[in-house]
Amino acid sequence: MSRTVTPAPARPVPPPVIRTTRRPWRRSTREALTAYAFAAPFVILFVALLVIPLGYAGYLSLYREQLVGGKVFAGLANYRQALDDPLFRDSVLRMARFLVIQVPVMLGAALFFALALDSGRLRFPRLIRLGIFIPYAIPSVIAALMWGYLYGPDFGPFAQLARGVGLDAPGFLTPDWILASLANIVTWEFIGYNMIILFAALQSIPPTLYEAAAMDGAGAWRIAWHIKIPAIRQALMLSVIFSVIGTFQLFNEPKLLAGIAPDAISASYTPNMYAYTLAFTNQEVNYASAVSFLLGVVIVVVSYAVQLASHRRARRS
Amino acid sequence: MKSPNTGRRSRLFTTAVGGLALLVLTACSGGSSNGAGGGTTKSVDMAAELKKPATIEFWSWLDGIEDEVKLFEKKYPNIKVKVVNAGQPSAEYPKLRTALKAGSGAPDVVQLETHEVPSFTITKSLLDLAPYGADKIRSKFPGWTWDQVSQGSSVYAIPQDSGPMGMLYRKDIFDKYHIKVPTTWAEFATAAEKLHKADPKAYLTNIPPTNGTVYTGLLWQAGSRPFKSTTATNLRVGIDDSAARKVSDYWSGLIESGNVSTDPDFNDQWYRGLASGKYATWLTAAWGPMFLQGTAKKTAGKWRVAPLPQWNAKEPASGNMGGSTSAVIRTSKHPAAAAALAQFLNSDPASTKMLASKQSLFPATTAQLNDPKFLDQSLPFFGGQKVNRVFSDIAKTVKTDFTWSPFQDYVFNTFNETVGKAMTRRQNLTAALTQWQDSVTGYAKKQGFTVS
Amino acid sequence: MTSHTTSTAAASLGSSRQPGRRSNVLTLLMLAFLIYFLLPLFWLIVSATKDNGSLFSTFGLWFGGGFDFFQNLHDVFTHDGGIYGRWLLNTALYAVVSSVGAAFLATLGGYAFAKFRFPGRNLLFSIVLGSIMVPSTVLTLPTYLLFSKIGLVNTPLAVIVPMLMSPFGLYLMRVYAEDAVPDSLIDAARMDGAGAIRIFWQVGFRLLLPGFVTVLLFQLVASWNNFFLPLIMLNNPKLYPMTIGLAQWQAQAGGVGGAQPLFSIVITGSLVSILPLVAAFLLLQRYWQGGLSTGSVKD
């Protein structure tokens, strides 16, 4: 996966509405046993690969292992330190800045493309849909690598073009611009994916919903704004949540770009990179665990806040 | 030939041994290594151990190191060596750390940069090679080189190459702008201003903000001694000592005036800068000339080599940058075979000769350092200059009492975040030096050291 | 929102439901955007035809300086003793095994959650879903330490096993199974005296196949693109997947060891490595487009 280890950047908002059953349950004990048997392989792996490691990380985060003196119980000291750690704070704030700019741009564009496709007014809709989607099939490592070359201040084509017309090469890889350059890579990778999700949602809107409006002479844009977009609120919400999760976990793209722009991307550029550096370079596995946990808390809080805000707005309208 | 003792203040004993060894080895270089790996020692019967079949794993980032390994396998047919390229140092160390942490997956023998040896020694990850015959090859290396890998009578790695620092410069550019090769830092600053004024696109040199080894080499030359440990748990951190402040003030001036560039090194842009004349000098280690020859082919014949500019022209000094070693991981199931490989690669005459010629490493052994064939090789790329001889002379001026911290990764990382960042932003380095000092002190305390 | 089944959503894709006027302006605008999306790929293709010299001396977005694609291809597959081919095979192996496994486990689990009632069902399901927010670093590091204790580190299993468990896959399959497998069909089979396993194989699985393929594709992409997990789990270059291998070559291209000669290899290697997945996506369009809608349309 590009930004995370688990599947797609688009994963649903937990928890979904669980349906109530429609038939009387019989032989309930036997049924429960059968169900457990079916779910067992998944659940066992879930415990082994998620619950246990998470517990272990929590345990690690409460200790401190020193080069001198070995392992000592530290209580919440690692967490306190992380809250005071300017490198951690800066990395989280950097991603927050990334989030408030990149996500609206990416999702706005994805929504626009999805609406355009859904309007049925495009020629070559298939070609356009696939062309926009293709970047999703490209590993983020390779995406970052390609853009890295394109950004190059010496042999990058943009630099060549700029020099060709007598301008200075654009400073894509300078400390001032690197965040925007990263945002561009991520946007490029995931617009198509989000577009497909939103497009699928648009396609499942019953045409009856807006046929009447069209009869009344409402234009395509008004229909889109007043009928279609509200109807796919749920899908939009999903895209936002996954983008939040993905953004805070950003690792591959900055890690790769750090190779060509080390003065712009430090080892603590994103929270995930920082945790990686702490664990594998600074030999502070325990502190890294605490930092990762706090990052998880940030993600949960922001995701929850986004959902809450959206529910409020939905209720008001 | 200058005395090998120049500038040496401490550790007279090892120096004496080294000096003696130099004499002995130049007298009988070539045939001396047969006993290096296979000889008997007090502790381990190497001859018997090395007859036993063993398969060991060796991590190295050197291209073509397999050739040297083949020499070893030929000599010890029962030992098989699996060579793994685990990536450049910055990739290899995290991998090694995880493997060590996990207790499995670590190699038997590993290439470490010299400055990393204490960092892996303190975690008790490295095997003491003394009982495996390493004490017997001590005499093959200059004393200070050996000091970098040993503590008392224990030996934790075998030096592979070294990196005394010098200055590679573009003679054509110097000639064009009538710049005299600077021998002092004061002259260097004047030249920097002169060149940049004459050609705003050119800089006398580039100081990389993302490579702490360069800056540390310059600190080393100036006499800064950032780390000193009196006991195993005590560390004196003097990153911002007076010599370091002197260096930082000096470079602050050059950087703030815009007379030198601050590009990251070893990336496309930097290669291009070396080839295009953007940088008129490269302050680098002895492995630099060969490296440059391979990467800036178009500039052949335009480069020359000189010692670093000096703070005190009467007392020439230099620092060391880079250089690496072979170490044996303590968990190795075949310690004797692993130790033999580490020693063979870096002390066998055929192997060291190959390291110098094929991998273009600047030698660590006294024999290779004094091999007339090596010294008198004239390189057309450098206008026929006997580059190795220049660096061999520089090597004798390297101050030898420099020690590394036991967490050097952290130190270099933090360099990027403090001094490096100030370089990129063209801010004052001395203030950043204090930040660097504070971060490292804080880390050391957190790691349980008493810091003085 | 009403529940549209995946199949109808999938079938409706591509067919424009409002065959209004085609807009040239909109089409041109979209084609302009298309340039942005395809530009890096075009650059990649162009660059794969250049040798190291012309890579830096010719204009990046057009052919020039000879046609060296086949030489580059040859170099990619022979550099470092031909290890690139090994990386490709590793990637394929890891991706196929973990995606088939993950899809199967998710199908079994999703079927159980959708079609059976048992104590702890909702709680368990909520926990699984909540786990999606756990950052990868929190998990990867302890997983590494635990795996090393049982000797899994630096083996293919170290990168396959963690990918077998997909909380998203389970969610998708549960939602899918609720609609795709009618209760009446299960009841009827049960009346005929079929056991739970037989019902699953003969009735359930066949109906769940489109969902199964969707999860499989998702996990295939996730595995194929995986970087963080193998970065930490694997030390041996012979076990690397392509992402790690190419990143290492890229690092070497600028490292002390190699310098420039590797650039054309990295670029051509990148091009070769993306072809299988791009091809898979083009061929399996129906499935992923349908599957994607399952996850989001449902309310």
TrEMBL record, chain A:
CDD domains from the UniProt entry: TM_PBP2
Location of this chain's protein in the cell: Cell membrane
Transmembrane segments: 33-56, 95-115, 127-150, 177-202, 231-251, 287-306
Membrane topology reported for the UniProt record: Multi-pass membrane protein
Pfam families noted in UniProt: BPD_transp_1
Name of the molecule in the record: Putative integral membrane transport protein
Segments of this protein annotated with the region Disordered: 1-20
GO-annotated biological processes: transmembrane transport
Main localization, broad class: membrane
Keyword Transmembrane: yes
Stored PROSITE patterns: ABC_TM1 (PS50928)
Domain ABC transmembrane type-1: 88-306
InterPro entries for the chain: MetI-like, MetI-like_sf, UgpAE/MalFG_permease
Family membership: Belongs to the binding-protein-dependent transport system permease family.
Source species: Streptomyces bingchenggensis (strain BCW-1)
PANTHER family from the UniProt entry: BLL4140 PROTEIN, DIACETYLCHITOBIOSE UPTAKE SYSTEM PERMEASE PROTEIN DASB
Alphabetized UniProt keyword annotations: Cell membrane, Membrane, Transmembrane, Transmembrane helix, Transport
GO cellular component, one term: plasma membrane
Record SUPFAM superfamilies: MetI-like
Highest classification ranks of the organism: Bacteria, Bacillati, Actinomycetota, Actinomycetes, Kitasatosporales
Automatic annotation (TrEMBL), chain B:
Superkingdom in the source lineage: Bacteria
Coiled-coil stretches: none
Presence of keyword Hydrolase: no
Alphabetical list of SUPFAM superfamilies matching this protein: Periplasmic binding protein-like II
Keywords for this protein: Lipoprotein, Signal
PANTHER family: ARABINOSE-BINDING PROTEIN-RELATED, BLR3389 PROTEIN
Name by which UniProt lists this protein: Putative substrate-binding transport lipoprotein
Organism: Streptomyces bingchenggensis (strain BCW-1)
